[in-house]
Specification:
This protein is mainly beta. The chain has 4 helices and 18 strands. The protein has helices spanning 9-19, 72-79, 141-152, 209-215, and strands at 2-6, 25-31, 34-40, 46-53, 59-62, 66-71, 87-92, 98-104, 111-117, 135-140, 157-162, 166-172, 177-183, 196-199, 203-208, 224-229, 235-240, 248-254. The strands form 3 sheets. A 9-stranded antiparallel beta sheet has the order 6-2-3-4-18-17-16-10-14. The longest helix has 12 residues, at 141-152. It is globular. It starts with a strand and ends in an 8-residue tail after the last strand. The mean pLDDT is 92. Its main location: nucleus. One of its GO terms (cellular component) is PCNA complex. Residues 1-124 form the Proliferating cell nuclear antigen PCNA N-terminal domain. Belongs to the PCNA family.
Length: 262
């Protein structure tokens, strides 16, 4: 038996909206410690990794670790039936064929119950290496979303360069060139606007803007985004989930473009 309640449906809605356009069908793994999801997009270029600690939920029970095969687009449609302030409870039997989704309004005067058919999705577990990254930057999530949107006007490939001075985003497309530079600055009036750089060595890599645009759909989840890079390995674009640090995270991995296909 699996049963978990989130006090506000808005959080689950934002999470599913963030990943449904990148990954359509996925196994959601539920176990005693929480809920997780790992899946590649259909092109096998990007990877999504979601981890939600059991403490994020106001009620959490999982008798046995089971995978719940979900069509995320259909799950998102059901979640849209909930008000942002409604609580949402997810229930599944150990060998059940449906996920039961219950919404309850704050005053408990309205309860809605839906069932979503579970799918049998055959996926191998993807081992994500615990990499020590050469360069990382913490910046405003809204600023990152805006930069990616602005870069997309000029081309389809964005070069990200991280140095001790700051982080630079540039594009060289058919229409022209563009460059946006964020200087390292921790002493700003608003903490969320700080640009924090951690650097062992400068790194410069190029990535497909189409996928970075998908990643920025997670912007409503967190005020800040953590970008980690090392030469010749996928970039990690990570967002915290929940108000307290360590309660959950949503991370996207994207392989860099090599010069021949840039």
């Amino acid at each position: 038996m699996f049963e978990a309640t989130l006090d506000k449906a808005q959080l689950l809605k934002m999470i599913v909206e963030s990943i449904k356009d990148l990954v359509n069908d996925a196994n959601v793994e539920v176990k005693e410690t929480g809920v997780s999801l790992q899946a590649m997009d259909s092109s096998h270029v990007a990877l999504v990794s979601l981890n939600l600690h059991s403490a994020l939920f106001s009620h959490f029970r999982c008798d046995r670790a089971v995978p719940l095969g979900l069509n995320l687009s259909n799950f998102a449609k059901i979640l849209k039936c909930a008000g942002n302030d409604d609580s949402v409870t997810l229930k599944a039997l150990d060998d059940g064929e449906v996920l039961t989704i219950v919404f309850e309004s704050p005053g408990q005067e309205r309860t809605s119950e839906f069932e979503l058919k579970l799918m049998d999705i055959d996926t191998e577990h993807l081992g994500i290496p615990d990499e020590e990254y050469a360069a990382s930057a913490k910046i405003s999530a809204k600023e990152f979303q805006r930069i990616v949107r602005d870069m997309s006007v000029l081309g389809d490939t964005c070069t990200i360069a991280c140095t001790k001075e700051g982080i630079n985003f540039s594009v060289n497309g058919d229409l022209g060139k563009g460059s946006i530079n964020l200087r390292q600055n921790a002493a700003v009036d608003k903490e969320d606007d700080a640009v924090e750089i951690t650097l062992d060595e400068p790194v410069e890599l190029s990535f497909a803007l189409r996928y970075l645009n998908f990643f920025t759909k997670a912007t409503p989840l967190a005020a800040r985004v953590h970008i980690s890079m090392s030469p010749e390995v996928p970039v990690v674009v990570a967002y915290s989930v929940g108000e307290e640090e360590g309660m959950g995270n949503l991370s996207f991995y994207l392989a860099p473009k090599i010069e021949d296909d840039a």
